[in-house]
Amino acid sequence: METQMFLKFIFFSSTLFLLSAFATATDVQYCNKKADYDVEVKGVEIIPNPVTRGQPATFSIAAATGQELSGGKIIIDVSYFGWHIHSETHDLCGETTCPISIGDFVIAHSQVLPGYTPPGSYTLKMRIYDGGKHELSCITFGFDIGVGSSSSSSIADS
After folding, report:
1. For 78, what's the count of Cα atoms within 13 Å in the CB-facing half-sphere?
2. How confident is residue 144, by pLDDT bands cut at 50, 70 and 90?
């Protein structure tokens, strides 16, 4: 009985922590507002916000799924003032723990933006696919890159 109470306390505490972490999350829009995506995105947190060029930045996406996922990929497209400037593809299991169980999970990606990255407002589009290339979710959100450091760095590989 004490073990069950302890496990419930841990679950409740971690859920509260997750919800509080995303209380000041970035505004997220679905690519297709009429679609019924298999993965529901609950929020995006960017640390630091605004992103500082030449310094590590972490994008954490809180999501939920109604099906177990054993793999897939994430495709990220970045635009600057409406112009597409960057694309990258990541293994879903490289950004979260697989298999992903039914319920809540977090996708986290960290990288260092080059020191020469122009400051300003950017838009990120993220599509999530399962192993069968079925689109599970598609979101867009804005983020800012501040002036910060101008030291030369390369984009970190993930």
Report:
1. 14
2. very high
- Residue 89, domain member (yes or no): yes
Report the distance separating Cα 18 and Cα 25, nearest Å: 11
In a domain, 155, yes or no: no
pLDDT tens digits for range 122-141? 999 999 999 999 999 999 99
pLDDT of residue 115: 87
- Residue written as tokens 């829009």? 29
Domain count for the chain? 1
CA distances for 61 relative to 27, 28, 137, angstroms: 12, 10, 12
The CATH number of the domain holding residue 136 is 2.60.40.770
For residue 48, whether the previous peptide bond is cis, meaning omega lies within 30 degrees of 0, is yes
